[in-house]
Specification:
Distance between the termini: 40 Å
Shape: globular
Number of strands: 11
Structural class: mainly beta
Radius of gyration: 14 Å
Strand content: over 45%
Order of helices and strands: EEEEEEEEEEE
Number of helices: 0
């Protein structure tokens, strides 16, 4: 059973930085990608950043140049470094792991990020 535990959310002023972490436990077969999503009330969850098995990264347009996704394979942990935060970045952030031939998705519990103006 794969479980994801997030940490690192909180309240920060506009222009500040936060780093989110996601640690995976359990046996992971055929890792496909790790990622971070965010969701605000009344809207669909959106992909913020992802990193594939071979290290390729992708970012949502509004966070390019401000957010960086990285991982520590030895610790089965990945991170989202967020800089130059804006009030519109306020959301619940969820980490995601996609694994297996069937491309199953696993989710963290979510962590609130609030950026004050």
């Amino acid at each position: 059973q794969v479980q994801l535990v997030e940490s690192g959310g909180g309240l920060v002023q506009a222009g500040g930085s936060l780093r989110l972490s996601c640690a995976a436990s359990g046996t992971i077969f055929r890792l496909n990608a790790m990622g971070w999503y965010r969701q605000v009330p009344g809207k669909q969850r959106e992909l913020v950043a992802s990193i594939t098995r071979d290290g390729s990264t992708d970012y949502e347009d509004s966070v390019k140049g401000r957010f960086t996704i990285s991982r520590d394979n030895a610790k089965n942990t990945w991170y989202l470094q967020m800089t130059s935060l804006k009030p519109e970045d306020t959301a619940v952030y969820y980490c995601n792991l996609n694994a297996g031939v069937g491309r199953r998705n696993y989710w963290g519990q979510g962590t609130q990020v609030t950026v004050s103006s």
